[in-house]
Amino acid sequence: MADLLQLILSGTATGAIYALCALGFTLLWQASGTINFAQGEFVMIPAFVMLFFINTAGLPLWVAFLLTCLVAMLLIATLGLSIGVKQLVKAGVTAQAMPFESPFPDGLLALGAMKVSYADVGTLLLAGLIVVGLQLFLNRTVTGRAMQAVAQNTDAAKVLGINVQRMVLYTFLINAVLAVVAALLVTPTYLAKFDMGESIGLKAFYAAIIGGFNQTRGALLGGVLVGVLENLMGAYVSPAYKEGVALMLFLIVIIFRPEGLLGKTEERKV
Amino acid sequence: MRKLGWVLSITLAFGITAGAMAQQTVPIVGLMELSGTGATAGTNFDNGVKLAVKEINAAGGILGRKIEYTSMDTQSAPQTAKALAQKAVDQGAYVVMGPVFSGSFIVSMAETKRAEIPNFTGGEAANITQQGNPYVFRTSFTQSTAMPKLARYIKDTVKAKSIAMIWVNNDFGKGGRDSMTKALEAQGIKVAADISTDPGQVDFSAAVLKIKQSNADAVFVYTNEEESARALRELKKQGYDKPIIGETTLTGQKVIELAGDAANGAVAHVGLTVDAPQPGIKAFDEKFQREYKYKSDHNGMKGYTGMYVVKAITEKIGKFDPKAFAKALHGATIRVKDTPGVLLDVHFDNNGDLDRESFLVKVVGGKQVVTATLPPVQPIQ
């Protein structure tokens, strides 16, 4: 039983990282109607920017993180070419993997019979904080509600005097910060490498579809579901099938509930 | 008409000069994993070859001809490696170095075999040299030589009665897993968990949990460099406190760099290490660091020694004849006193497998420490 709980908890931590990345997918889709296939690279770039601040400029991790948030907002909001970005890092920085320090201390936390790492607990707390903060921002602030209005009906939002373009820009900026946080959490395990975005980008895309592409809550559910099921499959069936879990879930959802688990059916006139 | 004469003369002169220049060099092609999952191994191997080429050329080349070395990126993909092997043949390569990954090499070696060009590999999969290809030569041990040495260590020194095995599901990993299973069986050690992982896998949490659930006395990790680092990090993250044992890759320089503290305590059998006590190896370590600003792993040493084997055998046969080269290398012994660049006395058998001293190492404080030097399987005469 302790094993099962441990698997669910560490799976939730991995899933939370997928969810952060998947949130970016859904936010952009809602605000601008575009699917950002460079989402994985949006996570990879901040990892290398943070490494630059840590290794070359000699800054501590948290300062590097804050600076990277700024750089990511400036850079990522304007970037969109997945392959181009990857090749740029491969040719300009390195094709080899690079180590990345963890923001959390080493060691295990004993919760009854369960032993969980500080890294998993930290990931869950930080990702949870970001998600709650984002929900509060979207639902309780004027800007957040304006962003939702743009997502629901761009024309109506325009009529109400909302600056649509600015709201779309805000969405990109939020997405950039989400990507930097995901990079901070995932890179100590994945290692910084030019193609590290492929795996996480694809998983997050599946997670967003599984949960419902037009719902931010859907992205969260999809991310956590993929993370937990991957862990259970790896431990109780075989680690060899672990990587296929997201795709399997994706196929089942597409067949039986194409709008996603929490998604709403959208109808459009042709 | 006179103008035409001038043009012809100049063209002819350029042709002769170009021809003479081509005669002064000998083309050697590297098929290297410079990107993709094998980037660490391929880049190191390639840098090792380049360092040897630089030294050999500075000392006058081989038989008075300079080496013209070009490396091409296989992207760690067997199909690309095969296409590039064909390109190397078309370019008239005297010898082909690489690929380093067994899976790529098994596919690409058909091209060099057809063209009868000697082909060196850093791959360790046992089946590479079991296919009767007379043009294949190793720069490292085959798994069927290395694993029995390691299994003996697990029984006699670690005193483990059961082992959890985690391996990468490619030709390298499968070959190692099969050789190790046999070697463990011969020592009476039980395999408590047999866990396969994907090449390029990033998340080892489930695999490590399975290792812990198996309650084995130790774990044997046999994956490529980056995956080894991720596995070590996850083992540490989940508080694994039993012996972690590997073969070559587990304690490589790049793995130690990537895994950080998590690499401490890991033990491995390695064919080559820059931390070996031999003065020639120490000198190589310094030269490599001066050239590339980082410490070479075993792959850098494989590339370096491989190129010096090319030099030694070519000078022995006294001509650039690929067929005669392959024939002469079978059964040959190359000694450090004659060719210091081979770093350790080495003997090649008739399959292209090599034998030489090897080492047991442990990672202490982020550094490889040699704990024992193991003799060659057969004494080198």
The tally of helices of chain B reads 12
Strand content of chain A: under 5%
User: Runs of chain A with pLDDT <50, length 5+?
Assistant: none
Helix content of chain B: 40-55%
CATH superfamily (homologous) name of the largest domain in chain B: Response regulator
Number of domains of chain B: 2
Radius of gyration of chain B: 22 Å
User: What share of the residues of chain A lie within helices?
Assistant: over 70%
Mind explaining what this structure looks like?
The complex is a heterodimer of chains A (270) and B (381). In chain A, 71% of the residues lie in helices and 3% in strands. With 270 residues, chain A is mainly α. Chain A has one domain (2-48, 77-256). In chain A, helix 1 runs antiparallel to helix 8. The termini of chain A are far apart. The relative contact order of chain A is 0.20. By secondary structure, chain B is of the alpha/beta class. Chain B folds into two domains: 8-141 and 278-354, 3-Layer(aba) Sandwich (Rossmann fold), CATH 3.40.50.2300; 144-270, Rossmann fold (3-Layer(aba) Sandwich). A seven-stranded mixed sheet of chain B has the order 7-6-8-9-10-14-15, with helices on both faces. In chain B, helix 2 (39-58) packs across helix 11, helix 5 packs across helix 6 (171-186) and helix 8 packs parallel to helix 9 (253-259). Chain B is globular, with a radius of gyration of 22 Å. The relative contact order of chain B is 0.13. Classes of the chains: A mainly alpha (270), B alpha/beta (381). The interface between A and B is large, with 38 and 36 residues.
How would the blueprint of this fold be written?
The complex is a heterodimer of chains A (270) and B (381).
Chain A: H1 2-32, H2 39-56, H3 61-76, H4 82-92, E1 108-111, E2 114-117, H5 118-140, H6 142-152, H7 154-159, H8 164-190, H9 196-211, H10 216-236, H11 245-256
Antiparallel strand pairs in A: 1-2
Helix pairs in contact in A: 1-5, 1-6, 1-8, 1-9, 1-10, 2-3, 2-4, 2-8, 2-9, 3-8, 5-6, 6-8, 9-10, 9-11
Chain B: H1 2-24, E1 25-32, H2 39-58, E2 66-73, H3 78-90, E3 95-97, H4 102-114, E4 119-121, E5 136-138, H5 143-158, E6 162-168, H6 171-186, E7 190-197, H7 205-214, E8 218-222, H8 225-237, E9 244-247, H9 253-259, E10 267-270, H10 279-292, H11 298-317, H12 322-329, E11 333-334, E12 346-348, E13 354-355, E14 358-364, E15 367-374
Helix pairs in contact in B: 2-11, 3-4, 5-6, 8-9, 11-12
